[in-house]
Amino acid sequence: MRVVVSGGGTGGHIYPALSLIKEIKRNNKEADILYIGTEKGLESDLVRREGIAFETIHITGFKRKISFENIKTVSRFLTGTKRAKQLIKAFRPDVVIGTGGYVCGPVVYAAAKLKIPTVIHEQNSVPGLTNKFLSKYVNKIAICFDEAKDYFPNKKVIFTGNPRASDVLDIDAQAGAQSLQLHPSKKTVLIVGGSRGARPINEGFLSIIGELGEKPYQVVYVTGSVHFDHVMEKMKEHKHPANVVIKPFIHNMPDVLGAIDLIVARAGATTLAEITSLGLPSILIPSPYVTNNHQEKNAQSLASNGAAIVRKESEMDGKQLLADIDQILTSEQVWKKMHLASKDLGIPQAAANLYDVLAELTRKH
Ligand SMILES: CC(=O)N[C@H]1[C@@H](OP(=O)(O)OP(=O)(O)OC[C@H]2O[C@@H](n3ccc(=O)[nH]c3=O)[C@H](O)[C@@H]2O)O[C@H](CO)[C@@H](O)[C@@H]1O
């Protein structure tokens, strides 16, 4: 089985691709994989770390407003498609899958034009521009929220879930706790602003650092790599509490998720797939800066089931956040109810579902 995988920009598109690659290798040790991304996206670090063959093309996204930049983007799309065609012809894949982000545009489009079977994986309830464009050309569209099917040609759609939901079940919670030097008998809350961090959440965190230091639980705080130096500079104005660990990025997230009791996060779809698979309760602060406010919709699907508390970024208040964390971590009853509601939404077999879609297209090919 020879597969080209493409997905880029942020962790929410890249980690599902990496989990799928693990599932392909699990079923098919001889499988050959080529990942096509961009040099600038997070994928150039995350994919190379895994030792997966990695090639790049140069592409930028469309601006929603009319802009001169869009002319450049069209020209990059054309050169990107040409380069993708060369890479695909040389690799001769049985199937090509895109997991979102601009880079998938030229890669999946080029594969479809070369008559190679193609799949896109849409993590969100509301699809992004690239997947909407590609939906006309691909053979199959794998989705994770029922609502997403309304945006795509019906007969191509198949519900699989997000493969990262399966991957996070294969974890070593003890290793996760040790990597952060967590106290084994204390409860832990992880606060993370998505794969690239979030400045407003960092500010909220700095405003409550003093109070966090007095809590009986421990806190793992992830700033996002680009914001780390700024947060650490600001931390010089505060006493660093012994129960608070601050990190720029967590590379062993599945193990860490296994070691915590509660997560405060953005509502990126891949994060939600992970936490529901594990049955973690959550406090979600959806990013208001995403296409069609889709994180708000992602978050509401958990909140309406009782699995999460949702707080708007515009109304974010450190005191409220502390009260929410306290309420969940200090009441076994509240925690258990949210845990069961969260678990109920998880799709642990998602990786196998998506692998089956690729395997069937490969067989037909
Ligand atoms: C601003 C933006 O466009 N966000 C989108 C992006 O978010 P983003 O990339 O933040 O995506 P998600 O929250 O869905 O996923 C983040 C991924 O990174 C991992 N992680 C995060 C932090 C860390 O320190 N270590 C780590 O491993 C998480 O465990 C998860 O696997 O893709 C998601 C999936 O399409 C979308 O729903 C989001 O709306």
From TrEMBL:
One of its GO terms (molecular function) is undecaprenyldiphospho-muramoylpentapeptide beta-N-acetylglucosaminyltransferase activity. It comes from Halalkalibacter suaedae. The keyword Transferase applies. Residues 188-351 form the Glycosyl transferase family 28 C-terminal domain. GO terms for cellular component: plasma membrane. One of its GO terms (biological process) is cell division. It comes from the Bacteria. UDP-N-acetyl-alpha-D-glucosamine binds at T10, G11, G12, N124, S195, I250, Q295. This is UDP-N-acetylglucosamine--N-acetylmuramyl-(pentapeptide) pyrophosphoryl-undecaprenol N-acetylglucosamine transferase. Residues 3-143 form the Glycosyltransferase family 28 N-terminal domain.
